[in-house]
Amino acid sequence: MIHTKVRCREITEADVDKIADLLTRGFVGRSREYWMQGLRRQAFRSVPEGYPRFGYMLDDGGTPVGVLLLIYTARQGGDETAIQCNLSSWYVDPAYRNYAPLLTKIAQRHKDVTYLNISPAPWTWPIIETQGFRAYCHGIFFSVPALARAPRWSKIEVISQHAKAIEGLSEAETELLTRHARYNCLSLVCRTPQGTFPFVLQAVRIRRGFIAPPAMKLIYCRNTAEYVACAGRIGRLLLRLGKISVTVDSNGPIPGLVGIYTERRGRKYFKGPHRPQLADLTDTELVLYGP
Fold this sequence. Notes:
Shape: globular
Strand order of the largest sheet: 1-2-3-4-5-14-6
CATH class of the largest domain: Alpha Beta
Strand content: 25-35%
Helix content: 10-25%
Order of helices and strands: EHHEEEHEHEEEHEEEHEEEH
Distance between the termini: 37 Å
Oligomer: single chain
CATH topology of the largest domain: Aminopeptidase
CATH superfamily of the largest domain: Gcn5-related N-acetyltransferase (GNAT)
């Protein structure tokens, strides 16, 4: 079948309902409300100037037949601002699959942008690598933080989405923690004699057959060493919430933590000028749309 009216264009707010319908059709097991919640979050979040808010779609006479969601974020590193783009959910109706390269081509055309793929299926890894992507995270460490020793003279605080200022943190980190609390993440601050350390975690379920034990995903910390230092205090809080494990993006076992490392899942890729930091999944699809 020849589709003479197909074009690739930027998604607008007027397209959101139809895009949600398309994604619901394409991803079995994901409800329409799941997609609408994420699209609403994308509609209201800050986006770097000059970049699309939602991503791109294949349009056939006004009807969406393909979609690639993009999540752009400005990352501040010292005096430099780097643009990062999470290549999120991709779907094209079967009759239009020959137009799919249009989506990926237009989505990855900025040479100064660092593109992320944080949820690739294992069978796609070789394909992604042929497209010029490199793995920056090879696996996951399943930690049991309650088995670590809590730092002396330390305390932990849960940060509300309404917090105006957090002692010991910059304005940017305060905004990061409150923003992610609004996304239903667990934002924490651990205070120790060595300093004040921010963390963001998200509830997930690690499926193994019919068993899905409750766990948390480490979405943000400044570096893994700070999580190791505060793991005991974090773990005791999580036990009260019925959580035992915290999964951490890693390239190997993490010294100082009890747990298991695996490379069967968790690989993450990037392409572009800036290698992403491990244990920083802020403002990605995992947060905006959910696990």
